[in-house]
Write a structure and sequence with these properties.
This protein has 436 residues and is of the alpha+beta class. Helix content is 36%, strand content 18%. The chain has 13 helices and 21 strands. A hairpin with a 2-residue loop joins strand 15 and strand 16. It binds glycine and manganese (II) ion (2 copies). The site of one manganese (II) ion has 4 residues, from loops.
Length: 436
């Protein structure tokens, strides 16, 4: 179900159009990273690099030179190496980069210093993302300096560096229909994992056993995690970035699971909160309904023409009203909102862009104004209320951390929720956990 070559070539053409014919773009693959001693983390290509190339080997560099005779798309890649390939598997090599991966020209990565200055010469602007891969930044500056030092020999160095990420990330913000299809799949797999976790959970089981259920479901659908899952029971449900996932699950506690997968480079990001024993207590249910109402209020604000912050404003309003209703805040709603009284219980924002990165790229503001929703944008909607032990709330509410998070695409008419395959209503969750 991966993307066809023409999706990548369309992206390259679009970027080159935006850059102009006097510019050139240079971008490196992600480096491999050591986990410990001689063991590496599983390799994950840089999102921008993959977005433009679909080429997933490390030690590669992509160059886009609009209008260049002999080819606009040049890849530098590892050479074939039969000995290394016995250990690590096949490499495309320069031939494969052209024949199988759509490059117009390809060279061994070892030739980069020799060839790149020539490609930069006579271009006015170099599109490059600064500050992500520091060693590569130095090399790009070095190539330009090489050209400057040869100016008297008639070589013309580029005069300007331009932010590649700025242009590219705006492209990535708008998902094509093929990207949306992958995001739907990623969402469905993650939803199944959450259903599985609800069915598995019971008092005496542990957070890590529940995590194992999630991972099993991801991997059996050829997906991986899109971030380390949060599986937090009881007091741990109130730790926003809880990662230990090592505690036993107790009767009467809630379990908050924030887990999503990455399928073919596209992330999902779901949170569900449910009772370990399958039945919400009255206090848990009361807070749950406050969060659910806030999520509904936020969903209603997602349609083309509305602005990025409208769902958050709606969630803040709804949570403040809800907390007043159940007695956790006292006062007039408009005043409480103004004072930010909700922040003691709801201390994060209501969502973020979603795509190849779980916290996806794209500006949230244009100048001083919030960005306006347009079809093809993808985001999460994730209000929460966290009542930690020691908070001002009555003790019977303590250790109640609830977040409900779903993934949404902006459509021409409004929005599509991608993650509805996992129950969200309290009654539905109880029914599922009862085996009904
Ligand atoms: N799992 C990260 C987030 O919800 O933003
Ligand atoms: Mn999220
Ligand atoms: Mn999340």
């Amino acid at each position: 179900m991966s993307l066809p070559q023409d999706e990548y070539s369309r992206r390259r053409r679009q970027l080159m159009r935006l850059m102009g014919r006097d510019a050139i773009a240079v971008l490196p693959a992600a480096p491999t990273r050591v986990r410990n001693n001689d063991v590496e983390y599983n390799y994950r290509q840089d999102s921008d690099f993959h977005y433009l190339t679909g080429f997933d080997e490390p030690e590669s560099v992509a160059v886009l030179a609009p209008g260049r005779e002999g080819g606009e798309y040049i890849l530098f890649v590892r050479e074939r190496n039969p000995e290394r390939e016995i250990w690590d598997g096949k490499r495309a090599g320069p031939d494969g980069a052209v024949k199988e991966h759509g490059a117009d020209e390809a060279y061994p990565i070892g030739k980069l210093d020799e060839i790149l200055p020539g490609l930069l010469a006579s271009r006015e602007r170099v599109y490059h993302t600064m500050g992500v891969y520091h060693d590569f930044d130095q090399r790009v500056v070095g190539w330009v300096n090489t050209l400057r030092s040869q100016a008297r020999a008639g070589r013309h160095p580029p005069q300007e560096f331009a932010a590649l990420d700025h242009v590219l990330h705006d492209m990535r913000l708008f998902k094509s229909s093929r990207e949306i299809a992958l995001m739907r799949r990623s969402a469905v797999i993650a939803a199944r994992a959450h259903v599985r976790a609800m069915q598995f959970c019971r008092p005496g089981r542990t957070e890590y056993e529940v995590m194992a259920e999630l991972l099993h479901e991801f991997h059996r659908h050829h997906a991986d995690i899109s971030y380390h899952p949060i599986v937090g029971g009881g007091a741990n449900s109130c730790v926003l970035h809880y990662r230990d996932n090592n505690a036993a699950l107790k009767d009467g506690d809630l379990l908050l699971i924030d887990a999503g997968c990455e399928f073919q480079f596209y992330a999902s990001d779901i949170t569900r909160t449910f009772p370990v024993n399958g039945r919400f207590s009255p206090e848990q249910r009361a807070v749950y309904e406050v969060v659910l109402a806030a999520q509904r209020a936020a969903f209603a604000e997602i349609y083309p023409g509305n602005h990025w912050n409208a769902p958050h404003d709606a969630a803040v309003r709804s949570i403040t009203q809800g907390l007043v209703k159940i007695g956790l805040l006292k006062g007039r709603v408009p005043q409480l909102i103004k004072e930010g009284a909700y922040r003691q219980y709801f201390m994060h924002r209501t969502g973020h862009w979603l795509g190849m990165d779980v916290h996806d790229v794209g500006d949230y503001k244009v100048g001083d104004e919030w960005r306006v929703f347009e079809p093809g944008m993808a985001l999460t909607v994730e209000p929460g209320v966290y009542i930690a032990a020691g908070s001002k709330a009555p003790k019977r509410f303590w250790n109640t951390g609830i977040r409900i998070e779903d993934d949404v695409i902006v459509t021409a008419k409004g929005h599509e929720v991608l993650t509805s395959d996992v129950p969200r209503e309290a009654d539905e969750i109880e029914r599922l956990m009862a085996g009904a």
